[in-house]
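Next comes this protein.

***
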Amino acid sequence: MWLSALPAVIVLVSVLESTATISGPLLPYLFPPKSPDGVNPALLGNWYQEFEFLDRGFIVHFQGTIQYFTNKTYRVTGDLKATSTAPGIPFVIHYDYDGNGEWQATDAELVIKVINAEVPLSSTILGEKTIPAIDLGLPSDSPAMDLGPKFKLAQSQRYDIRSTSKDKIVLETNGLYEDTFMINMTRTKRTYLR
């Protein structure tokens, strides 16, 4: 009985083999594989990002670029601005942010870890008057002169990837007070320069 089915099995195997030979090389293009190595290819490249969150009496606003590399490292540069929410004369502090670290991502989540951060004071604005950092007369080892050492290095931050496209990615994360905020990233060829 099984001998009568043998020719049909041989024909079926030969058809499947031919189909696999023809369609096999095309399948990765039709159904891109998931990223088991932690490098989500949608994130690779240079991205402009702008976001803000609340932090102890200030609204913190970041504007700059982040670049994700295939070796799971990243670099972020930009302007970190803290605006006082206290009543009275408006007070704004500008820092130049330059940091790097490691990243990994799946289709649903991005995790970054800060390895190094230099965040020197750039200027302050009190009311209408802008005061460059050099004119403040603060000692160079003053904690206000560089926020970099205050960053918790090697601490991970998780982001939910809400959407990805060729030129735009939307991330969502929790702030310091368990408030959520969105980060919209748009692909750019330019890197933020101070």
